[in-house]
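[Archive record]
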Amino acid sequence: MPATLYYIIGASGAGKDSVLNAAREQLATKGNSIIAHRYITRPADAGGENHIALSNSEFESRKAKNLFKMHWAANNCQYGLGIEIDQWLTAGINVLVNGSRGYLATAKKSHPDLKVIYIDVDAAILKQRLTNRGRESATEIEARLARHQILSASIDNAALRIDNSGELSTACNQLIDIVSRA
């Protein structure tokens, strides 16, 4: 059975990192799936995502050597997913990646059979999460909420949806269920 690339997207604050981190250990011990680490030009201790921190020059060097399967810029950082993804898929291992909604069309060109998983969240809960984390001004939060509404309305019907408005364990179980059915 061929392996599947799961491309996870959602608004900033929807809980993508939280859901992936909660599912990481369970996926490692059951099933045939792994979560790929992203290479990001931000400090390792920046919080949130379990990622591989690179300097801008390290990132550019790896990009020049074609060591990224996918890469994009967002939020004043560079993000990359390594070429090891293809090795894992070829070996029959399902791979979950924390993707970018802005890069989705490009990702589909290199992996037309990828499955999109959209982590959704109620707008009021999203606003509270963004406010609580304290990274953005009120104006920036309102802009993120507006982008969330546009994204939510534009998600393809083929995308698999996970509602992360409630308990994290519920969203985690939904993700594990989706991947387990593959």
Summary: The chain has one domain: 5-180. The mean pLDDT is 90.
